[in-house]
Design goal:
Elements (H helix, E strand, L loop, with lengths): L1 E5 L3 H13 L3 E5 L2 H8 L13 E4 L8 H11 L4 E5 L4 H9 L4 E4 L4 H15 L13 H4 L7 E4 L2 E4 L4 E4 L2 E2 L4 H11 L6 E2 H9 L7 H15 L5 E4 L3 E4 L5
Organism: Streptomyces albiaxialis
Protein name: Sensory transduction protein RegX3
Pfam families: Response_reg, Trans_reg_C
């Protein structure tokens, strides 16, 4: 995965790049907003437009505010952007997300959480690139036919293109977030998704204040699908889709 790190602090960037490299990322470091835009946007002077899977964007850049950079990126590119900044106030978080950032991480952060968020935003983008893109070969097929847009878990059938869910052949109406949550878990049966990761992917926001919403949606899915054991709770961690279906 190719990642653009926009960070003016060389010490922070060097340490972070080393960790990212150890985890299999190709990290390209730039120190200013202008450099970031040249790397990302084909219309910028000197741009090679090499393509990146994710952008880690600091807000306190020497030449322009990171919010402005995010806005420029989002007007012409769908590349996922994670704002990584010391600005912890709610107003800044809301502003960043409204500008089109895919996630917002406050320094200091846990490296494991940052890595999970990077993978989360890259997975959200994967369906745009074609069936199975970004997933190990054969994984979609093992998950019940995801390669053709249909997931089957026992009596539950999930049609991703039409966003329809059927249980024993009968369609079950779900809300938008209920479907997104179900589809996320169903694409990787048996894999544990942390609560923070689910909130990031489905609600596109941070964990704070959203935990109860997640619990309510899980309970609603179990009730509507009439399969209380289909979504399993992993105490203290999160949720997973039963690998055996239901």
């Amino acid at each position: 995965m190719r990642l653009l790190l926009v960070e003016d602090d060389d010490h922070v960037a060097t340490a972070l790049s080393a960790v990212l490299t150890r985890h299999g990322f190709e990290a390209v470091h730039v120190r200013s907003g202008a450099e970031a835009l040249r790397e990302l946007l084909p219309g910028e002077p000197g741009s090679g437009a090499p393509g990146f899977d994710v952008v880690l964007l600091d807000l306190g850049l020497p030449d322009q505010d990171g919010f402005e950079v995010c806005g420029r990126i989002r007007r012409t590119s769908s590349t996922p952007v994670i704002m990584v900044t010391a600005r912890a106030d709610v107003r800044s978080r809301i502003h960043g997300l409204n500008l089109g950032a895919d996630d917002y991480v406050v320094k200091p952060y846990d490296m494991g959480e940052l890595l999970a968020r990077i993978h989360a935003v890259s997975r959200r983008r994967a369906p745009e690139d074609g069936p199975g893109q970004g997933r190990p070969a054969g994984e979609a097929e093992r998950d019940g036919g995801a390669a053709d847009g249909t997931l089957t878990l026992g009596a539950v059938t999930i049609e991703l293109p039409t966003r329809q869910v059927r249980v024993d052949g009968t369609e079950v109406p779900l809300t938008r977030k209920e479907f997104d949550l179900l589809a996320l878990l169903a694409q990787r049966p048996g894999v544990v998704f942390r609560r923070e990761q689910i909130i990031s992917e489905v609600w596109r926001t941070s964990w704070e204040g959203t935990g109860r919403t997640l619990e309510v949606h899980v309970a609603s899915l179990r009730s509507k699908l009439r399969r209380p054991t289909l979504i399993e709770t992993v105490r203290g961690v999160g949720y997973r889709m039963s690998a055996q279906g239901a």
